[in-house]
Amino acid sequence: MDFLARGQKILPDKSAMVSWMEAKAENGVIHAPDQLILPHPRMHERAFVLGPAQDVAPCWVHPILGKSISEMFANLPKGDRESIRPVD
Q1: Of the four, 32, 55, 82, 88, which is 20 to 30 A from 26 by CA?
Q2: For 39-83, how does the pLDDT look when each residue is reduced to its tens digit (9 = 90+)?
Q3: Is residue 72 within 8 Å of residue 63, measured between CB atoms?
């Protein structure tokens, strides 16, 4: 299960968080951390996370990036943003 965020909490610390955000996938796989990382280190790259999150917390600001959910979503490629559609 992925956890996205908990307010402005950074776990385990800012240095570890930034390290996970900058980690590159090796052969398409990023090794799972052995501890909880908050906010989720890839949430800012994922339309399927940010699109729905706009409905819940559009003004939440990422404690490392300093951008709101809406700003991060707007920064994604157009095709990624347009792939998010409501479920009927």
Answers
A1: 82
A2: 999 899 999 999 999 999 989 999 999 999 999 999 999 999 999
A3: no
User: Where are the alpha helices (H) located in the chain, listed in sequence order?
Assistant: 14-22, 47-56, 69-74, 78-82
- In one-letter notation, the amino acid at residue 44 is H
Q: In this structure, what DSSP letter does residue 26 have? A: B
- Taking only the tens place, the pLDDT of each residue in 19-42 is 888 887 654 556 777 888 899 998
The identity of residue 2, as a single letter, is D
Q: Is residue 69 within 8 Å of residue 57, measured between CB atoms?
A: yes
Tokens of 12: 């385990």
Specify the amino acid at residue 32: A
Taking every pair of Cα atoms in the chain, the longest distance, rounded to a whole number of angstroms, is 41
Indicate the DSSP class of residue 62. Answer: -
